[in-house]
Amino acid sequence: MNIYFYTTNQLIGYRENTIMFSTLQQKGATIYSNVEGMAQSVNLPKDLDAVVVLDEGIPSDTAYVVALSIARGKPILYLLKRGLSWPVEIQKLSESRELKKLIKLVSFTPRKLSAIINEFLDQYLYKTEKYEIKFTLRLNTELEQYVKWKSKKSKLDKAAFVRKLIENMKKEDEDYNNKEK
Questions:
Q1: What is the SS3 assignment for 128?
Q2: Which of 103, 86, 83, 19 is CA-nearest to residue 9?
């Protein structure tokens, strides 16, 4: 998967940039970026799968990056630090019914950044539908402690960990997969 990461703060050591690179690398992404030392200008390769924009409220080429991504039909995650106002041109784009399928606007805090990125990649690139059905699962103390430990170790919340287990079981279940044919 090829991701273009555009940030308005181009410092490589900037906390949010570090979180972004770490999360995308954990997902196995090849990252193109305008971060210092990676590229001299805004250059979006044609084989991109998605674009992530991190807006810190600093004047920049974000509108150009978004427009180019839309022209190429690439999904866009537009992240704006919580407390800042949305750029008018970006907010107008998100009001379009057709463009809502391509662009996701999210206000973030550094603590939630990794989870937001993972959700975006799952939803837009892996085409998983949003999880809206609630399911009550009752566990004994020992199982709950195991799920808590294992989810923490895998850096997922408990619900995401259990969903991933079920999704893996579904992929490996030959009877279920043959039933669909």
A1: coil
A2: 19
